[in-house]
Amino acid sequence: MRTTSGARFVRAPRPVSPVEIDTVVVGAGQAGLALSHHLSSAGREHVLLERGRVGQRWHERWDSLTLLSPNWMNRLPGVPAASDPDGFVSRTEVIAHLEAYARSFDAPVLEGVEVTRIVRRGASFRVETTDGAWVARSVVLATGDAAAPYVPFPPPPEIASLHSADYRRADLVPDGPVLVVGAGATGQQLALELSLAGRDVVLTVGRHSRAPRRYRGRDIFDWLEVLGDFDRRVDELPNVEAAKRVPLFPLSGANGGEDIGLDRLAALGITITGRLERFDGRRAVFADDLAENVAAADARLVKMLHRIDAHPLARGTDGAHPRPLDLPAGPRTLDLEAFGAVLWATGFRPAYPFLRIDGAHDRGGEIIQHHGATRVSGLYVLGLAYQSRRNSHFIGGVGRDAETIAGRIVGRPVRRRRRRVGWRQIAAAALGALLLLPAASPAAVQRPRPTDVPWAETAMAPNGYQVYNDYASPERVYSSERAVVHYVVLGIDAPPLNDDDADGVPDYVELVGRAADRALAYYERRGFHAPLPDEEGPDARPDVYVTRFIPGTLGIAFPAADAAGGAFVVVSNNLDPSAERSFASVHATVAHELFHLVQFSYFPADDAAALPPPWIIEGTAAALETRVAPDLDDLVSALQLRSWFTATGRSIVSQSYGAQLLWQSLDTEQPRFLPALLERLAAEPVADEGGAAVAATYARIAGRPFPQAFHRFAVALTGDYGNVIEPVFGVGPVARRSAVVAPLAVHYVRPVMPRSGSYSLTVNFPYGHGSASATLTYELESEVAGGQPSLRRIAGRTSDDGRTTKFAVPVAMRADPRLANPLLVVSNGGGRAVRYAVSAR
Fold it and tell me: Checking CA distances to 225, which of 1, 128, 255, 595 falls within 20 to 30 Å?
């Protein structure tokens, strides 16, 4: 059945200028790092140039800042969901999170490097910095829309003036009352902090928003997510510029999330006035628009709450609306002579003073872009408000735009390559719990054929898989060359299948037939038995039913013991049709399930219990689907491998899908091995996991011991998956560790090697190495832009009758900046556990 670390960033040495590279990213905040994650996954060479430190903008915010958005809104690409999704994080926690995120995939960040000039040179860009120059094919400006503090007009020179970007805490503001200009989220938060610190505060109010922190039992941002507001595309908005001018809600994440609001501020004694119009000498002049602005904010609030009230999730909850605000009219003028400072909470603007490229800006100096792509080929922007959606500039919203831009740079939708992406990233992108994979098949049950279920009993078949029979009554049949595909044309749940070529057969059904033909032809060429026949089908060809499953199940193959009249395959009606990058591929699923029919043909048709254990049955089926479609990159396979990558120290016989990499390796090396293994297991059924039968069959076919092949497989994995394999343990520069490697298991050990001085790593098998082997590997990054790293091995010196192997690592190798991902591989391809010790000095 088919179901679905690095060091702190440091100032880099000045490179030889100019350096050629594929992509330069300006800025290493959340936008730049999200893009770097996708570019790294696609194997695209790039560098992030950061004028300060990772997340520099957050370093420049005030000390007590707590995000007003809940944690579930702040998830970056490849990051697991927060353990406290409804909590709130402080500024310092955001900084720590961004730094850890950058380290998690070794983001190529150069800190303390400020971009001074970007110009076009032919088809490339020249990027000049305070630390040398770069020549790149593409440039991404990931400085966001908060690059330059905005002050609408200058204050009187004799009064201290500071922007919210310069504010740190109340005791650093000059003594005296404070005029806070702007009543958005920042203005109200700072006015509240200053007032609680004992300062007299005057707050000017122009266009602003009003919202409760919680309404009808949910955070207000939860409701906006439910209503689809955050995901609304800019193309759907009647006036994008007007939407940009609506301030964020005046809320806070402090104290677990709280309201602010003009009513609360007024109750604290803060003077509230209309919009600041101008300064007349030392006097501030305010517009007579306070009541108008407050009424407009109340009207927008009521409109939003009515939308929430109408949602089905609001039923049965308390929905009392806040009362309209009734504030006293504020002063029209104010003498600022005794004031300590004017504090501008008037927001930011994007700024690219270093960009010297004709045609990139409009007449007002704004960069012209659509969904991040500018009018200049190869030049992109990222992190702007409403770049493609309302949440484009949120921490958790920037990832989607980053993926789009990465796809444009790479020249195709970004593809998560196996060598540079882990299952955590893939799983984060894979619809979460909806597509969790079952670990094992439910117990076998007698199941009627889909067409035998009467119309009145079409709810579901009586089995744990919940195969819905609505799709099988009435049905039609499509005959491909090698299979018969059954599909439904009527019924309350009949799948909406297109027929673009108007031949009377849905395109999806024809696709299933072609996938079946391809797989069956491959298995025939390989010399496997013909699939177990379906005795009650139209003919001897395998029968494939198209149906609907519970979420997470992609396909099922029923042997005769479960099929009440013959073996057949059932696949989901909504599999991914892509033949390249895919999630839940129709090609892989059909090939996987049909190989089960091939497996069933080797064993007694009436005894499903005679089948080999799951690590052989499911592992070989998962491996053969990749052999049928070698160009397919189906992310389901990566999800299935997570148990292997996180626990390679467990015997591979305890895996099911996780064993597929071993079977791929063995089948590629010895194509005659798997047919011979099925023959052997059918002739001599095993009572255990069958490891001895596997080893004996391989030795007979290959003419050499199985443990050698197992070790080659274990070493090869470090080149393809080294960055996602979780080591069993690490070994410091001067340390000793011992362990026991189980039969058919691999221990990956992470050595921490010093950059200077002598260094060696010694592996000792005190009771003999038996079927175990040890190899020290590392990767050497390519010198060619975009090139793949190469897997290297360090030759060991064996002594003491094979009990001891010493790996001496030259200092030149350890000092090479291209060296990455060293791993000591200790594998055991035999049937007995082996003890070993690792020492470094």
Answer: 255
